[in-house]
Amino acid sequence: MTATTYLYVPGDTPARFGKALRSGTDAVVLDLEDAVVAARKDEARELVARWVAACDPAGVELWVRVNPGELGERDIRAVAAPELTGIWLPKVESALEVEEAGRVLADCGAGHARISALVETAAGLLALPEIARAAGIRFLQLGEVDLAADLGIEIDDSAEQLLFARSQVVTVSAAAGIEPPVAAVSVNFTDPTTFEAETRRLRRLGFAGRACIHPRQLAPVRDVFTPTPAEVGHAEDILHRLAAAPSGVGVDARGHLIDEAVARSARRTVARAPRPGPGSGP
Known about the structure:
- By secondary structure, this protein is α/β, with parallel strands linked by helices.
- The chain has two domains: 5-225, Phosphoenolpyruvate-binding domains (TIM Barrel), CATH 3.20.20.60; 229-271, no CATH class.
- Helix content is 44%, strand content 14%.
- Helix 3 links the parallel strand 3 (61-65) and strand 4 (86-89).
C-alpha cells in the first residue's frame, strides 16, 4: 500500500529519529530546512547523514527535506545512502532544479532515490506542468504557508483561497502520470476533529496522503486515507459486476450505472486497502 502518513522530524534532534521510526508512520521526513536554524545546519546535516547511513528502516520510508540552492547540494551529497527513499526539495520553480538534484543523487550512488518537489511560490505554481514531468519526480507538494505569503492571500478556516493551487497540483500530477500529491502540514494537533475534517476535504480534492508534524496526527490521516471494509467491498463488487456485464456498462448493487470510469475509481480504492500482515487471518 502506498504511504499516506509522512512524519516530520527536525534534523537537529537525533533523540527523536528512532521514536519517529517506531511511531507507526509510513514515512519519516528528516527536516534540514525550516526546522533547523542557520547556525545548526552543518551539525544537523552530519547527524541526519550518520543516522540514515546506519538505519534499518524496517519498511518505513526515509525521506530528507534538504535546503534550497547550494546548501541543498551539500545536504544531498551527505545523506545519499542505500536506505534513503528520497529527498523533499523545497522552493522548486523549475524542472531544471529537480533534474539537477537527480544528477547529484546519481553522482553519489543514490540513483534509486526519488524526489518530491515542494512548490511554494507563484513562479513554481505556473511551472507545475514542467516540474511534474521532470525525471525522478515521485509526487508533488504545496508549501502552503510560503505560497500564501508569496501570493499575498489570507487563508481563513475554509482555506478556499488555496482551492485553485490545490486543484492545480492534483491536475498536473494526474496529467503527468505520477503519484497524487501529498497534502501540506497543519499546525493543528490539539483539535483532532477539525484536523480530520480538513484532511477529509483534501482527500476528496485528490490528495493521497498528508505530512504531519506530530504523532497525534498520524491516526486521523491514516483513517481518512484508508478505505473502510465496506468501501473496499463495494469497490470489489463494482469490478466483479462490470467484468461479468455483457457490454461495457453494468449496474451496481445500488442500481447505479457503472462503466470503466467508475471502475478506475474502484481500482484505486482496492489499491489503498490495508494488506494483511504476517500471521494474520482467521
